[in-house]
Amino acid sequence: MSELLQRRLALLGAPEHLPLLGRSLHGIERECLRIDEHGQLALTPHPRALGSTLTHPQITTDYSESLLEFITPAEADPAQTLADLDRVHRFTYSKLAGERLWSASMPCSLPEEASIPIAQYGDSNIGRLKYVYRQGLALRYGKTMQCIAGIHYNFSLAENVWPLLRQAEGSSLAPRDYQSERYIALIRNFRRYSWLLMYLFGASPALDAGFLRGHPHQLKQLDADTLYLPYATSLRMSDLGYQSSAQSGLTPCYNDLASYTDSLRQAVSTPYPPYAAIGIKRDGEWQQLNTNVIQIENEYYSSIRPKRVTYSGERPIQALMARGVQYVEVRCLDINPFLPLGIDLEEARFLDLFLLYCALQDSPQLAGGECRACTDNFLKVVKEGRRPGLHLQHDGEQIGLRDWGVALLDAFAPIADLLDRVHGGTAHAEALASQRAKLDDPALTPSAQVLAELQGRGESFAAFAERQSRVHEAYFRATPLEAKLHGEFEAMAAQSLAEQEELEAAPRGDFDAFVAAYQASIIGVAV
């Protein structure tokens, strides 16, 4: 353990400060496809009974009309966060007729690209903008890749942690800048160590053979309908031949917030010739929001993002530049197809340990060589993380994945002890022990368990994931929401529909001018 980490843990472990560690906030966004009774992509519109995807705070869609996204409030107790997510699932199932939710990150057997429906958000200017943005994604990356689903884990330390650390370390930075610097430092460490999350929680070692649409690949054939890699942990986070050549040159620097936001601002304002060749409009109809490297900042695909809650009409970069980093969004987590929610409390508790370590451990800036090594380690683990004797790059040398993993878990142990002191019991120590067991025995990892099911049952990936979808459907339908909670969700859905109608009834002005103003909104933003 570094001296700096020891000092920070000693400070936060003092009796008068220890409660702060119990006030971290957690939120989850879970994406999942709607499928029909035959296990095929549901081509029906988003159920109106769930509310408006434009204005509902907890139930929306991501890329496709068929790709649901559930959003929890931020809670101090991850058990409460998961309870919130559970309630959203139960309400959703009360409104699904002849459909269910797909259990895995990699999609079901998909129809031809033209038949995959892009999400609709109504006739308001902001609703149209969201649709055109997704049209642009379809042109740039194809609709198939946009049907992959994942878990996003939002995390922040208690606000009072930062002034405490700032004072103890004698920082001359303004409070807002110190907090942002510490979150960016967290992200640098996340880049260093996130390969471990892929090994421990990756759950997509196989996929439906039709997913690649005939594109060249290096996957192996498990059966007539399934492709896989024998030691893969998360094909969802691999290249799969669908990476954007435009984004390949976009490597936002995480050495400070300004360099990160500047790189994204440049990307949303720099034309990319192949996109320019497509054009913004075709026969007067919008095809994409612009012809730049990325249309908006959210198009940048990253495993973690610095975030700040936005005001109405405000863009993410504007919020970051104006008020600094408030939390991080972890985006690399697969949906565990064995779990009804795709994630459980043990995983959430381990994520807390991991992220607190990233936040409190030394985090020197990433030099070019180390930055490349972080990427290489991550990609190596997603494709062959369970390969016996696998080695990664660490401080310019080779180190065994298991050895490095054990060393990291050892470093997490004092944090687990502090959190268990805050909450009582031994839940965090137990979460740590469960992950240590996976390092000792790769067969315990979700990715290994998925392949064991496919091979042991002689099932295709699609048949396995559909079977799990039915198991989860039965789980949620067996215990419907109590009447009071159900009524609250009904009211939320009705309110969201009313808000969308109000937006669409208001004078909206010219859409072209609206898009132009939206695009210009971050070009000249000042801190």
From TrEMBL:
Keywords attached to this entry: ATP-binding, Glutathione biosynthesis, Ligase, Nucleotide-binding
Annotated catalysed reactions: L-cysteine + L-glutamate + ATP = gamma-L-glutamyl-L-cysteine + ADP + phosphate + H(+)
GO MF annotations, alphabetized: glutamate-cysteine ligase activity
SUPFAM superfamilies noted in UniProt: Glutamine synthetase/guanido kinase
Domain (Glutamate--cysteine ligase): residue spans on this chain: 11-381
EC number: 6.3.2.2
Source domain of life: Bacteria
Family, as annotated: Belongs to the glutamate--cysteine ligase type 1 family. Type 1 subfamily.
Protein name, UniProt field: Glutamate--cysteine ligase
Organism classification: Bacteria, Pseudomonadati, Pseudomonadota, Gammaproteobacteria, Pseudomonadales
